Amino acid sequence: MNFITAKKIGRNRLLRWILLMLGLVAIIALTGMNVFSLYDIRERVTESESERQLKKAEEITTLVQSEIYQPFTKLLNIDNQAEESLQDDGSLSKTLEKIFIDLADNPYTSSIYYTPASKDPCEAGTSIYYFNQSDRKMETTQDYSSLVCDGVGLIRSATRIQINNFDLRWRSMIEFDAHRSMNIGLINLTENRVIGYFTFILNQEAIVEKLIAPLIYEYFGGIENDGTIVWLHDHRKDVVLASNNSSVDFSVDLVDNRVRFPRFFSDWILKVAFLNPPITSAYQDTFRKNIIVLGFAVLFLVGSLLFMFYTAQKERELSMRQAGFLANVTHELKTPLAVMQAAGENISDGRVTEPVRLKKYGAHIYDESIRLRKMIEKLLDVAKYDAGQTLVNQKTHDLKVLVDSYLEENSEFIESKQFELEYSFENNTDFMIWVDSDSIDTILGNLIENAIKYSSVTKKIELKLFEDDAQVKLSVRDYGVGIKKSELKNIFKKFYRVEESLVAKTKGHGLGLSIVRNLVLLNGGDITVDSEYGSGTTFTLTFPKLNPEEIKNYS
Ligand code: ADP
Question: pLDDT at position 5, please?
Answer without folding.
Answer: 58
